[in-house]
Amino acid sequence: MKKLQAVLAGIAVLLLALAPQFAGAQNFPSRPIRIVVAFPPGGPTDFVGRLVADKMTKILGQRVYIDNKPGANGTLGGGDVAKSDPDGYSLFLTTSGAVTVSPHLMAKMPFDTFRDFAPVALVTTVSEVLVVSPKLGVKNVKELVALAKKKPGAVTFASTGVGSPPHLAQLLLDAAAGVRFLHVPYRGAAPALTDLLGGQVQVVALDTPVVISQIRAGNLLPIGIAGDQRVAVLPDVPTLAEQGYPNTDASNWYALLAPAKTPSDVIDKLNKAVNDALTDPGVHEKLVSTGATPVGGKPQALGVFMKAAYDKWGRVIAENGIKVE
To answer: Is residue 165 located within the same domain as residue 222?
Structure first.
């Protein structure tokens, strides 16, 4: 009898210890939720984050707000969230680069992608679109490749930094076309775009939302999509694969992550809120109109997706000997 009483007492103590966790998950959220965006206000990641956060606020009944923490290729903000309490109130809206590319480039990372984060949901994918000045005289990727072969090392390919999606898009095209463009890295999309418009560089691959307004204005000519499918806002622009250059998908993507050990019930509530936000007609239309593709889905699917991207970019970076100084 005494043994049974001891067992029951132990179970009672355990249940009391777990009670706050169960209550927390059941009542979540009971205060504002912070989503860290590791880029300055006004950029595409910030736009997506604010759009989704506003809708999540209405769905969850608590304020969901954006906290911009730019720096270190997006890893600074990630490190902040990785060290936060695993309670669902601090989240990380990451790009592909911060969690699947930078770990292969940086000697010291402020987090481990798969140890320190729990997947919540894949928010959007964003294809890279190759754009040139209309003055360059090429109308498709084959003509661009022909020009690069005619002038080896003279055709400049801008990027937003070493190991960025534009740089990776160039490396994939180099391999597929058997050509080498002259890589010109910039500190972000704005200066790369400015120099492309000014004629200092000849081609760049950028997130569709970044260049769509310049394309619509006729200032830039889209010649190919570095993704696995065409983009809704540019239906007449074929992918690089369609033009004869396979294995050239360098799509960027934005995903929502929580600190590791966040309760599964909390993850499920956040996942449902993201999915509901993405299926809202207003949110969906605004994302698609900029060139982003709403995705959603289960946390487990995001985990598998991230691991595949991590392995893919690890191989590309190793094969090309890319290093960040």
So the answer is: yes
